[in-house]
Specification:
The chain has 300 residues and is an alpha/beta fold. The protein contains ten helices and eleven strands. The structure holds ligand LMY7XDAE. It catalyses: (6R)-5,10-methenyltetrahydrofolate + H2O = (6R)-10-formyltetrahydrofolate + H(+); (6R)-5,10-methylene-5,6,7,8-tetrahydrofolate + NADP(+) = (6R)-5,10-methenyltetrahydrofolate + NADPH.
Length: 300
């Protein structure tokens, strides 16, 4: 039997609908409009698309969008000054600096200059520490989106064996913390893990976040397991014509879907949830800033 396909595009629309409802209620009862500032440095084509989509979806949810597009040669000092300005702006509840940044800018320095309460990416060292100690924090968008899809599919995750392949600060580590918070038994695996295939086969929930196209084949997947594929890799697609490309995940979808119980596709799986969770985090940040109850079902 082939796996159930977890439709991240459809689910992200549901999440964005809930955000829009929360925003409308905030406006109606308190006259407050959440605001999200997105900062892009340079002309990376993929980043330009993501930033455009973030701005568009922010407005569609009824929030205010502030876009700051800076030249690739912008200095670190000037970028830090902009972050300070946004930190002090009461109309801005969330700040996001699109990654990657140009090489001459220290990304950690910039991220840690964002006011933690406005850090809707959840990358600030304070939020990392709060999440790691099980306290209320801003949670990174991609892992939060994965958690929402898993909760929606399974109900309770308690007691399940979860394997996260990948140990990045942005996805692998926070994903592991979130699964632990939902009482999974968590293993973080990576390129040096011994018997990676065997470790993956032990997973009831397998999260692939290694950034290597189609690295995880179907025979590494336990029958009936839920597979969450975080990878977004562009590979040549000669079948579509010369020079054409297509997107694939870190999992070999065609073989994995024959073994898994449920699986996210690429595209249309985790990716759309990233922006939906950014909007959810902005609403959460705005509620917290105003001492109001947080929206239900949109936080970890
Ligand atoms: N400050 C941040 N920078 C980056 C983040 C982030 O969360 N915060 N994540 C990525 C890029 N990203 C959002 O910024 C992002 C990536 C992919 C998608 C998405 O919807 N992907 C689609 C496919 C898109 C395509 O056709 O190319 C999908 O998977 O279906 C949304 C957001 C790095 N930078």
């Amino acid at each position: 039997m082939t796996a159930e396909i977890i439709d991240g595009k459809a689910f992200s629309e549901t999440v964005r609908g809930k955000v829009a409802e929360g925003v409308a209620a905030l406006k109606e009862t308190h006259g407050i409009t959440p605001g999200l500032a997105v900062v892009l440095v340079g002309e990376d084509p993929a980043s330009q698309v993501y930033v455009r989509n973030k701005g568009k979806q922010t407005v569609e949810c009824g929030m205010q969008s502030f876009e700051h597009k800076l030249d690739a040669a912008t200095s670190e000092v000037d970028l830090l000054a902009l972050v300070e300005q946004l930190n002090a702006d009461p109309a801005v509840h969330g700040i996001l600096v699109q990654l990657p940044l140009p090489d001459h800018i220290d990304a950690d320095k910039v991220i840690n200059a964002i006011a933690p309460a406005k850090d809707v990416d959840g990358f600030h060292i304070l939020n990392v520490g709060l999440l790691g100690t099980g306290q209320k924090s801003m949670v990174p968008c991609t892992p939060l989106g994965c958690l929402m899809m898993l909760r929606d599919h399974h109900g309770s995750l308690s007691g399940l064996n979860a394997v996260v392949v990948g140990r990045s600060n942005i996805v692998g580590k926070p994903m592991a913390q979130l699964l632990l918070g939902d009482s999974c038994t968590v293993t973080i695996a990576h390129s040096r893990t011994k018997d990676l295939a065997g470790v993956c086969r032990s997973a009831d929930i397998l999260v692939a976040a290694v950034g290597r196209p189609q690295m995880i084949p179907g025979d590494w997947v336990k029958p009936g397991a839920t597979v969450i594929d975080v990878g977004i890799n562009r590979i040549p697609a000669p079948e579509k014509g010369e020079g054409k490309t297509r997107l694939v995940g870190d999992v070999d979808f065609e073989t994995a879907k024959e073994t898994a119980g449920a699986i996210t596709p690429v595209p249309g799986g985790v990716g759309p949830m990233t922006i939906a969770c950014l909007l959810a985090n902005t609403l959460t940040a705005c509620c917290r800033a105003n001492g109001l109850p947080e929206p239900e079902g949109l936080t970890a």
